[in-house]
Design the sequence.
């Protein structure tokens, strides 16, 4: 799955992720007793976290997905978001929990929350696996958080670089040679 020289530094191990997901699952289970929980995963980065988190939650829920793409350069989000795939279900009156892989500038999530809010859910909260608060440009409320990370580009556990490394079960930074295209 990985070549040895692709990893720079492991930031979050599988064991740390497992413990955190278990803890978040317990909290969400407690907070959403008797609610009409809809889990909204933001494709594609959130699916690994979403799948693990859903199994750590022991109340009924339904899944739905949105796919969005941000205009502009690949590593810098512009805040202008295009919906590539919208929800299949209506969320009016439901208790919506948006599941994200990472909140970086916050622009993507801010835009997404505005769209969802206009559809009148009973409640709207956010659960993100990672948070890079150092890079925030707009204030967004994160209700459930996995890990705060430093201002570094990370991959693994759903997060990608050029579409790769999503299936690696831990979070790490890449050997800088990869960005230069010198490692194949
Ligand atoms: P924001 O609008 O800047 O908050 O952008 C968030 C999106 O940028 C995430 O959903 C990721 O797709 C991507 N992103 C931001 N930081 C990273 C990172 O360190 N690794 C991989 N993707 C990232
Ligand atoms: Mg994303």
Sequence:
């Amino acid at each position: 799955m990985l070549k040895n020289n692709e990893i720079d530094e492991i930031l979050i191990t599988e064991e740390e992720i497992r413990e955190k997901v278990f803890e978040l699952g317990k909290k969400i289970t407690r907070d959403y007793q008797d609610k009409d929980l809809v889990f909204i995963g933001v494709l594609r980065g959130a699916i690994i976290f979403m799948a693990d988190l859903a199994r750590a939650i022991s109340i009924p829920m339904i899944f739905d997905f949105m796919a969005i793409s941000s205009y502009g350069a690949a590593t810098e989000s512009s805040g202008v978001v295009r919906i590539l795939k919208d929800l299949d279900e209506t969320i009016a009156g439901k208790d919506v929990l948006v599941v994200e892989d990472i909140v970086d500038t916050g622009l993507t999530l801010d835009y997404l929350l505005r769209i969802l809010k206009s559809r009148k859910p009973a409640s709207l909260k956010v659960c993100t696996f990672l948070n890079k608060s150092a890079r925030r440009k707009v204030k967004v409320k994160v209700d459930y958080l996995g890990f705060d990370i430093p201002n570094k580009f990370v991959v693994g556990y759903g997060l990608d670089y050029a579409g790769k490394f999503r299936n690696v079960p831990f979070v790490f930074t890449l050997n800088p040679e990869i960005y230069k295209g010198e490692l194949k």
Remarks:
- Residues 45, 77, 101-109, 153-155, 159 surround inosinic acid (ligand 1) (CB under 6 Å).
- The two ends are 13 Å apart (CA to CA).
